[in-house]
Fold this sequence. Notes:
Helix content is about 35%, strand content about 25%. It is built from 6 helices and 12 strands.
Amino acid sequence: MPFHDLPGVTQCRFKRGEYLIRAGEPVEYVYYLLKGTVYRESVTAAGRERILSSKASGDIVQSLVGILILYRRPDTGVSSNDFIAHTNCTCYRIPKDVCMEYLRRRPALLEDVVRTAMDEYMRLMALFQVKEEGHVAGQLCNLLLERGRETEQGLLVSKKFTNVEMAKFLSVHKVTVARILRVLKEEGSVARTTEGLLLKNPEKLQQYAENKLELKYK
């Protein structure tokens, strides 16, 4: 297991809703997720909460929370976002200097961290462009396809992934999400079940996601 035998590393736990890192505060520790999911969130000028990215245990790069803050300029080490436990989390808490030295000695791992950062950046830029061009419905369909998991019924998005969370990921109002989902239900592309949202026509959702079809919901 990486990081566990490094100097100054301790194990800690966060309950759902607790902050690992707060916006505006200097970061003294990086967190490595052993279990759980963390959301990186911000608040827009209009006061709307927005989920910028998520981190989850299982992959060394995706499990590192807060590492990119240490490489920011000019305010290196100060977070501009909140990192909040979406589920109960177990983590290694790693002193920032120890973590940076660990990565310096492993250039391939540091390269993976940079690639992940670029992927997140490109995703956010694409999302902002989608909003400007009015393609929110396609982006929601893409989000549903990403979150869908195979079941006996077909692709299913867990009921734990609520309309509010979808709205935060897309930086839109939850009413907008509800309107799009209503149209998708009416046309038979999705259906509500006791376990969540069943994607009955993933092929059509993919066409919406790729803007090959336009979904009118207003």
